[in-house]
Every structure is written in C-alpha cells, then in structure tokens.
Amino acid sequence: xxxxxxxAFPPETRPYESRRDERVRGxxxxxxxxxxxxxxxxxxxxxEHCLTTRAIDSGKDQLCAMSTLRExxxxxxxxxxxxxxxxxxxxxxxxxxxxxxxxxxxFANPRMALSAHLTAxxxxxxxxxxxxxxxxxxxxxxxxxxxxxxxxxxxxxxWIGLTLSAATGASEALPIAGAGHSADPVSEKVVSAVVxxxxxxxxxxxxxxxxxxxxxKRA
Length: 219
Known about the structure:
This protein is an all-alpha fold. The protein folds into 2 domains: 4-76, no CATH class; 83-218. Helices cover 75% and strands 0% of the residues. The chain is built from 7 helices and no strands. It has helices at 4-8, 19-30, 34-76, 83-101, 110-133, 141-168, 185-218. Helix 4 (83-101) packs antiparallel against helix 5 (110-133), helix 4 runs parallel beside helix 6 (141-168) and helix 6 packs antiparallel against helix 7. The chain is elongated. The protein starts with a helix and ends with a helix.
C-alpha cells in the first residue's frame, strides 16, 4: 500500500484545493529553492494521505475482528443437544403452570389446583437452571441421559398427578391439600401411583444432578 499511494493520488489530479493550501503553496514558491519546497510539500501531502488510508484500513480490520468475535460469542450462547431438552421442557412446564394459575377456581379442589400451579412454575424454572448447568456436570453420557429423563418425567408426572387430584378430588396421596375432598377408588389409585412414581423419578434425577456437580468441583 505504501508504494501505490503516491502514484494513485498525485496532487495535480485532485479535483480541487482549499484557498489556504494555495496561499501556503504560493508563499513557498516565492522562497529561494522554491522547487525543492514544492516537492517536499507534495511528498508530505502524499505521506499524510497514505497514513490516513492506512488508518482507515486498520479501522476496518478492527471492525471485522469485532464482528467475528460477536459471532463466536453468539455460537457459544446457543443451546447444545444436552441442554435443549431440559430447557425446552422447563419452559413449556412453566408456561403450563402460568395458564393453570388463571383457572384455579375451575377445579373441584382449588387448593390442590393452586399446588399444581406452583409446582409447575417452580419445576419449570428448576429444569431450565439444570439445563443451563448440565454441561458443567461430571457424569458418564448414559448416566447423564438417565438423569435428564428422570428429572423431566418426574417433574411432569408430579404436576400431572396434582392436576388429576385437583380435577377429581382425590386426596389419599395428598391428605393436607386434599382435606375435605374425595374421589372414586380408581381415581384415588391412579393419582397415588402417578404421584409416588413421579416423586421417585424426580428424586433420582436430582440426585444424579447433585452428584455430577460435586464431581465437577473435585475435577
């Protein structure tokens, strides 16, 4: 670039010049050795132009580097195949909990419906947090898959069990929130099985999550 700038922008081919430059050039030509002064001024102007062009090119290079860095940061923020199931499942459960909260009074047992609403909202947030932290865990791939599936199935199962209890009035598995309500034997058995099974799965999944966190700190 340095060799091509003087030839690419000779002062004779410029479209216009400022009056100040003309006055300065006139004064310089009136001095002894005016031809040497003119040549020196031209070399100075050409060098100045080259420096300006190089500064512009350097600025463009910096902008390109910043753009590339932002693209890389954006890629790093994207969800991996390990994170996405938990994050998406948590977001969907959180949304279902919000929608359920608007119709709590429509259930046979509003108190149980409120419990189901709070369970869905809190479980959804917990699953999204677990999904964001999962890559930091130190677990074997198969163990990690079991843990993720257990958390998702357990959280959703518990919410479904509470929702069924709120809709049918079943209260054997949840006597506190279901006080004063009852349902037919089949509904009671179904709700009890769903709540018990989902509680076991949820506990297993979160146990593996905690073990993975502890092992990652030791690594």
